[in-house]
Write a structure and sequence with these properties.
- There is one protein chain.
- It is built from 21 helices and no strands.
- By secondary structure, the protein is mainly α.
- Among the domains are: 1-10 and 54-131, no CATH class; 309-391.
- Helix 14 (257-263) runs antiparallel to helix 15.
- The relative contact order is 0.08.
């Protein structure tokens, strides 16, 4: 399998180098955020670990173990509190000159969650200088660079995974990046073969690979294949928030709002997924759309009041499609683009530029499409509209 990945690199890509102050609420009744019931997370294992920490708070291994579990919980349930808990546990080790490698990795994951990508990359570089065999470090670095559309650098972070005895991990990483730089079909074919060859891969790895396959298939117009991959991925235990969002977006593009509502029926607590619910209700012209829109607007306002700016892409999408304010949506989309440059970020920037009749604002995305040859029908359609405006 390792040989196949090495050969696939040359086939898919001949050359890798082608390219605030705390907010004070006005009154006690003001809602800042709706959080899940604490009892849901107060399981016996976490309680036991916390008790052990209280008895020996200077134990690095115990603190790291608990912090890792907090981060996993925060990621799974989109609950920012758990990243804060993890950061509190690691704070004393983060301040020393050479933190333990595991502390550096967890610190990078916390910074990644908060979109401090520069800080996360610094932690990862420090980690990988000391542990060049750390697969999670290389993968996390690749994902951050991918989010920033730094594709050549992302590939360089995927490449070391080939020699770290996880063929499907390396193959998925390489295929995901290569699919965005003009090699979508070759990446899709390769990744399908890689997944078939690794039938014993663990559930989490299979789920990620299937999600990447679904995304590539959708961008290639392979709608039935994308649906099949998404359905298989969502059927694996513990599907993550990213997968739910990606699948919902696919269904919205296919004008299947009923399926979106069924998929997300118990996920309305999470703002990003509640946005997809609202967009599905808009497609259905649901009677409660105004109420849902008001609640979502209040959630975004509360996020801003907390000094957070982690959801500007989603807020831009909400502002454009549900509030019909293209100028404000464009401002949010441009601010979001400074940090995140995934296809979905490119899409909302182009859509807002079209709606606001601001063709010049679309230039960063047009430049990216020109430089990469990215296959993406929605982006290409919006880019054509921008060019038509410029004539």
């Amino acid at each position: 399998m390792k040989r196949k990945i090495v050969v696939a690199i040359s086939v898919i890509l001949p050359c890798h180098t082608a390219f605030a102050a705390p907010y004070q609420p006005g009154n006690d009744a003001q809602i800042l955020e709706r959080l899940p019931a604490a009892s849901r997370f107060e399981n016996q294992e976490l309680r036991q670990l916390r008790k052990q920490m209280a008895a020996g708070p200077a134990r690095t291994e115990l603190a790291v173990d608990l912090a890792e579990r907090y981060i996993a919980r925060g990621k799974a349930d989109a609950d920012p509190r758990y990243y804060g808990y993890a950061e509190g546990l690691l704070k004393s080790w983060q301040q020393i000159q050479e933190p333990p490698p595991k502390v550096l990795l967890l610190s990078a994951l916390i910074k990644q969650h908060r979109h401090d990508f520069g800080g996360a990359l610094q932690d990862l570089d420090s980690l990988l200088r000391r542990q060049p065999e750390n697969a999670q470090g290389w993968l996390t670095r690749a994902i951050i660079l991918l989010v920033q559309a730094r594709y050549a650098e992302a590939l360089q972070s995927c490449a070391p995974l080939i020699d770290l005895d996880d063929a499907l991990l390396a193959g998925t990483c390489l295929a995901q990046v290569n699919s965005l730089i003009g090699h979508a079909q070759k990446s899709y074919d390769f990744l399908q073969e890689a997944l078939a060859d690794q039938s014993a891969a663990n559930a989490e790895q299979r789920q990620w690979t299937l999600t990447v396959l679904a995304d590539i298939a959708a961008r290639l117009g392979k709608i039935l294949d994308a649906e099949k991959h998404f359905s298989e991925a969502i059927g694996i235990e513990h599907p993550n928030i990213y997968l739910f969002g990606a699948y919902a977006d696919f269904l919205l593009d296919q004008h299947q709002p009923e399926k979106v509502l069924a998929l997300l029926q118990d996920k309305s607590r999470i703002d990003a997924l509640f946005l997809r619910i609202a967009l599905a209700k808009q497609q259905l012209a649901a009677s409660d759309l105004d109420q849902v829109t008001e609640e979502l607007e209040a959630r975004f306002a509360a996020s801003r009041m907390r000094g957070e700016n982690l959801h500007q892409g989603d807020e831009a999408r909400f502002t454009l499609h549900l509030l019909n304010k293209p100028g404000e949506a464009l401002r949010l989309a441009e601010a979001n683009w400074q940090a995140q440059r995934e296809p979905k970020d490119a899409r909302i920037l182009l859509a807002a530029a079209v709606a606001a009749h601001a063709a010049e604002a679309a230039k960063p995305v047009l430049d990216l499409l020109s430089a990469t040859g990215m296959e993406h029908p929605q982006l290409r359609q919006l880019a054509a509209q921008i060019r038509q405006m410029q004539r």
